[in-house]
Design a protein that fits this description.
2 domains, mainly beta, 1 helix, 130 residues, 3-stranded antiparallel sheet
Length: 130
């Protein structure tokens, strides 16, 4: 287990957004890097991956993607009164409870509008950017 965790050491996620477009860059240590670009106006999604297995690019739409993040329309979103400042943004706490009972804690700001092509996910019910 420790060796598996060590491979993810230094992992990071960066999010960029402008208008109807958002880009998420994930770097999972030495394993894989992935960039996802979403155009919420056209519903197009570009996924770029690179790692030990080579580089790949996929152009798709959110309707064609089958994504299971553990957060579905069957999940419950509970908005809390807890607050904290993250990178200069005043954020509020939300807890998303999945149909399986597992809870995920999110901090979101209402100063940034979230961009998502999946309008059925519980994350899209948050009143701001997680």
């Amino acid at each position: 287990m420790a060796m598996g965790v060590a491979m993810f050491n230094g992992s990071k996620m960066e999010l960029y957004f402008d208008g109807d477009k958002a880009r998420t860059e994930l770097d999972f240590g030495a394993l894989i890097s992935m960039a996802t670009v979403i155009n919420s106006k056209t519903d197009e999604v570009i996924i770029l991956t690179g790692g030990m297995m080579g580089n790949n690019a996929v152009l798709t739409t959110s309707k064609e993607m089958e994504v299971d993040e553990g957060v579905t329309s069957e999940s419950t979103v509970t908005l809390k009164k807890d607050k904290k400042t993250i990178l200069g943004y005043k954020c509020k706490k939300a807890i998303i409870t999945g149909a399986d009972g597992n809870e995920m804690v999110y901090w979101y700001t209402d100063k940034i509008s979230a961009i998502s092509t999946d309008k059925t996910s519980s994350i899209s019910q948050l009143p701001g950017m997680p």
